[in-house]
């Protein structure tokens, strides 16, 4: 049975009749070879780690050191169960699939690794490398998005074709690609692991210059994805501010304001009605303030004298 997690085009790209050929080597298949050559389609051979180079088309740029260390410990005990896939390049080999196993084997102190040797064209190398990595759950969302974009661009694939080759739904491909439309600052937060892909996708509809400010509010799981969606909706559709009902000025208040303006010889305004409100007396110089103050003091002193009488 073929692995259901792989795209339908993967096994044919690898040149294998059954993807389980990569996972079930028999004791008789573990033969030694010392120079680059193409082995029988069913053979698993052991290759010196010193003769192997990483794939220059590897879309994964970051490898989790802790996970590699765990794999290295497993390899020390059980060996490499699943052979890697190599292609001859001159007198050496290049990894087509299995760079994590290659790195972990070096960490485990191994000198050789089981491998299947295949001849591939440069186009096949790139396509296989991209698809093989896109099957991995540990590929970061941004690495996956960039790999899918490269796959579509360089091999002239539509989203539907890419989805079929990778073994994912078209909507999943579209959602992953949308991450690349975010601002560079937001992309950096995703790469740092501070913002999940689910949180980040809610920001796609926000203008790029506003995305980072909102992204920070959702970093480190401060908000759930649903809360983030609500925040974005509120941002796009702000509620209108409630305006206080205008107060109608009474005739008495209008008259009072006019009398005060004449008395103080300055601007006087009122906010309110005949029941409640505020009166504002403006001054524009220190002389204005001194004059208004003197008038108030004079009025107060006259009032006190009248009360004493």
Question: What do you see in this structure?
Answer:
47% of the residues lie in helices and 12% in strands. The chain contains 13 helices and eight strands. Strands 1-2-6-4-5-3 form a six-stranded mixed beta sheet. Helix 5 packs across helix 7 and helix 6 packs across helix 7 (170-178). The model is unreliable at 1-42 (pLDDT under 50).
What Rg do the Cα atoms give?
A: 37 Å
Q: Count all strands and give the number.
A: 8
> How are the strands of the largest sheet arranged?
1-2-6-4-5-3
Helical amount among residues, as a percent range? 40-55%
Provide the β-strand percentage band: 5-15%
Features:
two-stranded antiparallel ribbon; rod-shaped; 8 strands; alpha/beta; 12% strand
Give the topology:
Blueprint: H1 10-14, E1 30-32, E2 44-48, E3 52-53, H2 65-78, E4 84-89, E5 92-97, H3 99-107, E6 112-117, H4 122-134, H5 141-154, H6 159-166, H7 170-178, H8 184-191, H9 197-201, H10 208-218, H11 225-236, H12 251-264, E7 268-272, E8 277-281, H13 286-308
Parallel strand pairs: 1-2, 3-5, 4-6
Antiparallel strand pairs: 2-6, 4-5, 7-8
Produce a short descriptive summary.
The protein has helices spanning 10-14, 65-78, 99-107, 122-134, 141-154, 159-166, 170-178, 184-191, 197-201, 208-218, 225-236, 251-264, 286-308; strands spanning 30-32, 44-48, 52-53, 84-89, 92-97, 112-117, 268-272, 277-281.
């Amino acid at each position: 049975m073929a692995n259901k997690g792989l795209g339908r085009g993967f096994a044919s790209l690898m040149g294998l009749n059954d993807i389980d050929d990569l996972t079930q080597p028999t004791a008789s298949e573990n033969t030694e070879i010392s120079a680059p050559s193409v082995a029988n389609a069913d053979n698993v051979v052991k290759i010196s780690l010193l003769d192997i180079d990483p794939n220059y088309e590897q879309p994964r740029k970051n490898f989790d050191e802790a996970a590699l260390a765990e794999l290295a410990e497993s390899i020390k005990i059980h060996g490499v169960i699943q052979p890697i896939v190599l292609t001859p390049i001159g007198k050496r080999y290049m990894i087509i699939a299995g760079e994590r196993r290659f790195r972990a084997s070096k960490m485990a102190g191994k000198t050789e690794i089981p491998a299947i040797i295949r001849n591939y064209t440069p186009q096949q190398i790139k396509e296989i490398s991209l698809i093989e990595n896109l099957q991995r759950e540990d590929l970061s969302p941004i690495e996956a998005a960039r790999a899918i974009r490269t796959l579509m661009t360089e091999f002239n694939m539509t989203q539907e074709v890419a989805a079929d080759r990778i073994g994912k739904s078209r909507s999943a491909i579209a959602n992953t690609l949308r991450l690349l439309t975010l601002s560079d600052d937001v992309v950096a937060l995703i790469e740092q692991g501070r913002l999940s892909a689910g949180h980040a996708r809610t920001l796609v509809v926000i203008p790029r210059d506003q995305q980072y400010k909102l992204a920070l509010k959702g970093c480190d799981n401060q908000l759930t994805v649903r809360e983030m969606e609500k925040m974005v909706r509120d941002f796009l559709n702000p509620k209108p501010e409630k305006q206080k009902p205008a107060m109608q000025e009474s005739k008495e208040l209008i008259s009072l304001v006019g009398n005060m303006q004449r008395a103080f010889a300055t601007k006087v305004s009122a906010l309110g009605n005949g029941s409640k409100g505020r009166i504002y007396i403006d001054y524009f110089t220190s002389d204005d303030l001194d004059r208004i103050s003197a008038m108030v003091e004079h009025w107060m002193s006259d009032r006190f004298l009248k009360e004493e009488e």
